[in-house]
Amino acid sequence: MIDLHYWPTPNGHKITLFLEETGTPYRIVPVDIGRGEQFTPEFLAIAPNNRMPAIVDYEPADGGEPVSLFESGAILLYLADKTGRFIPDNLRGRAEVLQWLFWQMGGLGPMAGQNHHFAVYAPERLPYAIDRYVNETNRLYGVLDRRLAERAFVAGDDYSIADMASYPWIVPHANQGQKLGDFPHLERWFHAIAERPATVRAYEVGDQYRRRDATVDEEAKKVLFGQTAASIRR
Questions:
Q1: Is the pTM of this model over 0.90?
Q2: Is residue 136 within 8 Å of 115, Cβ to Cβ?
Q3: Which among 77, 68, 69 has a CA at the least distance from the CA of 105?
Q4: Rounded to whole angstroms, how far apart are CA atoms 76 and 99?
Q5: Is 82 exposed, middle or buried (0-12, 13-18, 19+ CB in 10 A)?
Q6: pLDDT band at 233 (very low <50, low <70, confident <90, very high)
Q7: Which long-range contacts (CB under 8 A, 24 or more apart) does 213-222 make?
Q8: What is the pLDDT of residue 232?
Q9: What Rg do the C-alpha atoms of the chain give, in angstroms?
Q10: Is 137 exposed, middle or buried (0-12, 13-18, 19+ CB in 10 A)?
């Protein structure tokens, strides 16, 4: 059994995508990030960066004490190695997956996140910031589109954790100021993943925790966007 500390954000969806694909038993531990639950001592003990997702694996491969991990990319890699699924066991195939996993972690996720922040949540519209991140997101979509021109999935012919990492960040493409029709190879890939039964199940899990009122109130904004070292010290 794996405990998944989770909220339905792109990074949270990455992990449910994997767990649903593999049929790995897991239990959701909700972390309502708009209400500051990521700052509880219990959560910080396994996720010192006060960000979800995080997992606790009660049956690690070495048979020892439970293993806890934070950072979605590290979790995907750990689960892939644990199950022997969705990452090749040969050097070159593994390298392909890893470089695109890190591309998402270092590029697509952070840039799309800043795009969404300045376009949707910022208290004032800053045209420079909006243009900067919309354009950079557009560039990254273009990188992914070119990559997918000659292969079914990001790292080759097989679905992998590199795809699971990127897909949830493409789901909110409209909020990022992007049109999938401008990226035909990415669009084909996107719909192929969306139609996978495990993807459908993963997003149904998220729907159970998503607030019916999707607005982010002022108190939640303070929690989400006003953090400093001093403000989160408990």
A1: yes
A2: yes
A3: 77
A4: 13
A5: middle
A6: low
A7: 216/34, 216/121, 217/34, 220/34, 220/35, 221/121
A8: 59
A9: 18
A10: buried
- Measured distance CA(192)–CA(194) in Å, rounded: 6
Query: Quick one: tokens of 214?
Result: 């999707």
The per-residue pLDDT for 186 is: 98
Q: Residues in the chain, how many?
A: 234
Please give the pLDDT value at position 213: 46
Q: What is the DSSP letter of 34?
A: G
Type of residue found at 167? Y
- Tokens 């910031």 locate to 129
pLDDT digits (tens, 9 = 90+) for 60-98: 999 999 999 999 999 999 999 999 999 999 999 999 999
Burial of 125 (0-12, 13-18, 19+ CB in 10 A): exposed
The Cα–Cα gap between 192 and 188 comes to 6
Buried b (16+ CB within 10 A) or exposed e, 11-30: bbbbbbbbbbbbebebebbe
